Amino acid sequence: MARILVTEDDDAVRMFVSRALMMDGHDVLTAEDGEDALDVLIREKGEFDLLLTDIKMPIMDGIALTHAVAAQYRDLTILMMTGFADQRERADGLAELVYDVVTKPFSLAEIRHMVKCALNANNLRAAVA
């Protein structure tokens, strides 16, 4: 299965999403904000199949994280999540860097489905390359 980094400042959401993805057999690491996520990415040499990140977080938000990740780890697929409409609009300018944006609240089935779609797109991109 895939190796996924979940970045979310809300403990309950981070645990909910992580557990859901582990139920599907994925290897999941977590980070509390963008700065923490960058530390994990550097420590793990960017060896993830997917970065699932919240947009609105303290210290470093998901938009800044996306720019940093895209500069260092070009092949990493990024899926964003947000509960704020204005934050989703901010992510629209990242279309070439982000697979999609999932709107909160989402169900267990919805987040699992979106992650599956993002990973499938990643696998197709890798097969073409």
TrEMBL record:
InterPro entries in UniProt: Bact_response_regulator, CheY-like_superfamily, Sig_transdc_resp-reg_receiver
Recorded superkingdom: Bacteria
Keywords: Phosphoprotein
Coiled-coil region: none
Entry keyword Nucleus: no
4-aspartylphosphate: residues bearing it: D54
Segments forming domain Response regulatory: 3-119
Protein name as it appears in the record: Response regulator
